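DM between two lab members

TW: hey, do you still have the Group II intron reverse transcriptase/maturase entry open?
JB: yeah, one sec
JB: this one, 196 aa:
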Amino acid sequence: ERRGLPFVRYADDSMIFCKSKRAAMRVKESITKFIEGKLYLKVNKEKTVVSYVRGVKSLGYSFYVSKGKCQLTVHPKSKAKMKARLKELTSRSNGWGYAKRKQKLKEYIRGWVGYYHLANMKRLLQETDEWLRRRIRMCIWKSWKRIKMRIVNLVRCSMDKYQAYMWGNSRLGYWRVADSPILKMAISNDSLRKTG
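TW: and the structure you got?
JB:
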């Protein structure tokens, strides 16, 4: 603090930001001496490293430099973990009904966005939103198990009978159908938004 260096501390972990590698090495040496010599605490030499800010992971965040300033972003591992959790929550194998699945999804997304609100993640949220809508469409399409059921439901969603028949008999995989213009029209973004 006295040196005017920006730092982050959480429980036993801390990060100190310096302008150069040389300065960081000096700070590491002096801080280690202070912690071990004055506070009589052991510093973990393996975890205490000097590193360029890009690629460093802390509490699920990582860092990048833009216009000379250090910015926060969501670490790739945290993104992968989030996507895996969304897959779990939208999986039909968990035996949840529609209402419970919707509630669990809302709770998780709200909590996740709240935790990472300091990060620049506009693009990530847009991409995740698109991916999640496609996944929800896929789950709905899967739930219309039989050809007859698919045709009936497509007609209910304002598709004409011919298109409903053609797509109801489609041999394309679930994921491909979920991204098709026909299913995007049948289960539009607006209808997904209205149902929560």
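TW: got it. DSSP finds nine helices and five strands in the chain. The mean pLDDT is 85.
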